[in-house]
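Severity: low
Component: inverse-folding endpoint
Summary: output formatting inconsistent between runs
Steps to reproduce: submit the following C-alpha cells with default settings.
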C-alpha cells in the first residue's frame, strides 16, 4: 500500500489484520480439532472463525477495553442499585458467545468431542477480546457443582444453559437466560479458602437445598453483574458451598453491596469487585462442610479455560507478529526472510502450537471422562497445563510485541492489550505454586493419575531420541516420587511441573500431523533446553515452513499488500 501525506509518501506499512478467518487460517487448530475427535464441528468453526475475524468484531474488542465498566452504587433518588455499567461492545461480544452456546455446549448437547469443539470456539472468541470470557467460563464451569443439588439445579439450570443473554438487573424469574459467577476470595486467605470468615446461618432447619443468610466480605468477585454466584462460607458444620442470587427468592434486591471495582492491569473490560454480604440469602449446595469438595470440578474446568485462554493469546500474538513480518521490510528484505527474525518467529510459533496441542488433548480427556484412565489423566493435565501455558504467555506476548517494534507498543495495536492480559490467567484460579501443590495432592491421593500420565508419555515412545531421553529421566523422577512421597519433593515442584509439561506437549506433537513442529519442539525444548528467551533455537529447524504454516491469510489481505 502506498498513500501520500502532505510531507511524504507512506510506504512499507503492513495492511490491517482484519477480515480474515481465524479458524481456516490456523492450520494447527484445524489439525487439532480433527485429531482430538471434533471433526463434526469443523464447518461451524469455519463459519464462526469468519465472524470473529471481521473488522467490526475486532473493533468491538478495542471498544470494550477503551471504555471499562463503571460502578453505580445508588440511583438518582438515593436507592442502592449496586449496578455495573458496561460498554455496549462488551454486551455484544458476550451476547454473541452465549447465543452460540459457548457457555453450555457440553451440557446442552453432549456428544463425542464436544469439549474439544467448545475449546476451539473459545479459542477463537478469546483472540478478539479476553475479558468477557470470564462470565462465560464461570457459567460453564458452575453447572457440575449446581447439579450436586438437584432441586436447585432444576430451578436454575434451564436458565443458565439457555442461549439467550439478558444483561438487565432484574430477578432471574423475569429472564430467559442468565449467567453465573464466583465469590470465593477473601482478604485474609486468598487461595487458602479454608481461612474464609464469611458466615452462613440457616434461615430454617438448614441442610442441602435450603436457604441461609450469608454475612461477610468477598475481596475479588469477577463479573459482579452475574445473576448468581457460587460462594464459599462457614456454615455451622464447616466451609460450605452456596448459590447466592443477586435478587432474593422473594423478588427483592438481595443484601449484596458492591463496594468498589478493582483497577486491574489487564482484563479491564471485565469488572471485578469487592463485595459486602449483609445477611444475603443463598441456597446450600450439597452438605455443610463439603464446600471445597463440591467446587473441585468447577475449579478444574475454570483452570482448563485459563489454559485455552492463554493459548489463544499466544496464537493472536503469533498472528500479529508473523503478519507484520510478512509485509514489513528492513535492510533490503522482508523481516520474515531475515535469519535472526526467523529464529524468533519460529520459536514463538512452536510455543503457540505446543500450548494449543496440550489444551486440546486436555479437552479430549474431558470428553472421555467416563474412562477411568482419561479421568485420572485430566486430574493432572489441568494443573500442569494451567501452570505451564499460563506461565509462558507473558514472555511470549512481550517477544511478539518486540517483533513488531515501536508500533507494537502503541495502543492502536493489539499487542499492548495482549501483553497486559497475559499474566492474568497465571494468577486467576490459583497461581503457579497452587497448581504445583495441587499436582502433588493428586499424586498422593490418586496414584492412578500418575499411571495415566506415564501411559500418555509412553504413547510417543520411540518417535524421537531427544524425547525418549527426557521421558526416561522423567519416569525415573516419578518413580522416586512414588517411593519417597510428595512431602519431601515440594521444593522441586516447579521443576517437576515444567518437565511434565514439556514431555506432555512433545508427546502430543509427535503424534500430530506436523513433523516440522514436533521435531523443532523436541530439538529446541528437550535437546537444547529452554534458555528462558525466545529466538535461541539451534540450527537445523525448518523455519520457512513453520512460519508459512502459522501466518494468517485471506484473499483480502493478499490483495491489499
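Observed output (run 2 of 3):
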Amino acid at each position: 500500500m502506498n498513500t501520500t501525506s502532505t510531507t511524504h509518501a507512506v510506504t512499507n506499512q503492513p495492511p490491517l489484520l482484519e477480515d480474515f478467518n481465524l479458524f481456516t487460517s490456523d492450520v494447527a487448530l484445524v489439525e487439532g480439532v480433527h485429531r482430538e475427535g471434533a471433526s463434526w464441528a469443523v464447518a461451524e468453526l469455519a463459519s464462526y472463525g469468519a465472524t470473529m475475524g471481521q473488522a467490526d468484531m475486532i473493533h468491538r474488542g478495542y471498544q470494550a477495553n477503551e471504555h471499562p465498566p463503571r460502578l453505580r452504587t445508588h440511583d438518582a433518588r438515593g436507592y442502592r442499585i449496586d449496578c455495573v455499567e458496561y460498554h455496549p461492545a462488551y454486551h455484544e461480544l458476550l451476547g454473541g458467545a452465549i447465543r452460540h452456546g459457548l457457555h453450555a455446549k457440553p451440557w446442552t448437547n453432549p456428544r463425542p468431542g464436544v469439549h474439544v469443539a467448545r475449546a476451539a470456539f473459545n479459542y477463537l472468541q478469546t483472540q478478539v477480546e479476553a475479558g468477557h470470557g470470564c462470565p462465560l467460563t464461570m457459567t460453564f464451569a458452575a453447572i457440575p457443582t449446581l447439579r450436586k443439588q438437584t432441586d436447585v439445579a432444576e430451578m436454575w439450570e434451564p436458565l443458565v444453559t439457555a442461549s439467550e443473554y439478558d444483561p438487565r438487573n432484574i430477578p432471574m424469574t423475569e429472564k430467559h437466560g442468565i449467567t453465573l459467577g464466583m465469590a470465593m476470595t477473601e482478604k485474609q486467605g486468598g487461595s487458602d479458602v479454608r481461612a474464609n470468615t464469611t458466615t452462613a446461618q440457616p434461615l430454617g432447619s438448614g441442610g442441602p437445598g435450603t436457604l441461609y443468610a450469608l454475612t461477610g466480605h468477598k475481596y475479588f468477585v469477577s463479573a459482579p453483574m452475574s445473576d448468581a454466584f457460587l460462594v464459599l462460607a462457614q456454615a455451622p458444620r464447616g466451609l460450605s458451598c452456596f448459590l447466592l442470587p443477586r435478587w432474593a427468592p422473594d423478588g427483592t434486591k438481595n443484601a449484596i453491596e458492591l463496594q468498589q471495582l478493582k483497577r486491574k492491569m489487564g482484563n479491564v473490560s471485565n469488572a471485578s469487585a469487592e463485595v459486602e454480604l449483609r445477611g444475603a440469602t443463598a441456597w446450600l449446595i450439597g452438605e455443610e462442610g463439603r464446600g471445597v469438595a463440591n467446587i473441585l470440578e468447577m475449579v478444574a474446568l475454570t483452570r482448563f479455560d485459563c489454559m485455552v485462554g492463554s493459548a489463544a493469546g499466544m496464537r493472536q500474538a503469533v498472528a500479529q507478529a508473523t503478519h507484520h513480518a510478512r509485509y514489513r521490510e528492513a535492510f533490503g528484505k522482508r523481516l520474515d526472510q531475515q535469519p535472526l527474525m526467523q529464529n524468533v518467529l519460529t520459536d514463538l510459533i512452536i510455543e503457540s502450537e505446543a500450548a494449543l496441542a496440550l489444551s486440546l488433548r486436555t479437552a479430549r480427556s474431558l470428553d472421555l471422562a467416563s474412562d477411568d484412565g482419561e479421568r485420572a489423566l485430566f486430574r493432572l493435565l489441568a494443573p500442569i497445563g494451567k501452570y505451564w501455558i499460563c506461565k509462558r504467555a507473558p514472555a511470549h506476548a512481550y517477544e511478539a510485541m518486540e517483533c513488531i517494534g515501536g508500533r507494537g507498543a502503541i495502543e492502536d495495536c493489539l499487542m499492548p492489550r495482549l501483553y497486559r492480559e497475559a499474566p492474568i490467567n497465571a494468577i486467576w484460579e490459583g497461581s503457579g505454586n497452587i497448581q504445583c501443590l495441587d499436582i502433588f495432592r493428586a499424586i498422593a491421593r490418586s496414584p492412578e493419575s500418575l499411571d495415566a500420565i506415564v501411559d500418555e508419555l509412553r504413547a510417543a515412545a520411540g518417535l524421537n531420541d531427544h524425547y525418549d531421553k527426557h521421558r526416561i529421566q522423567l519416569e525415573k523422577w516419578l518413580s522416586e516420587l512414588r517411593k519417597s512421597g510428595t512431602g519431601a519433593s515440594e521444593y522441586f515442584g516447579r521443576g517437576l511441573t515444567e518437565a511434565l509439561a514439556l514431555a506432555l506437549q512433545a508427546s502430543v506433537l509427535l503424534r500430530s500431523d506436523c513433523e516440522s513442529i514436533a521435531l523443532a519442539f523436541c530439538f529446541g525444548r528437550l535437546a537444547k533446553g529452554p534458555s528462558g528467551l525466545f529466538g535461541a533455537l539451534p540450527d537445523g529447524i525448518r523455519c520457512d515452513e513453520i512460519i508459512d504454516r502459522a501466518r494468517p491469510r485471506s484473499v483480502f489481505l493478499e490483495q491489499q499488500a
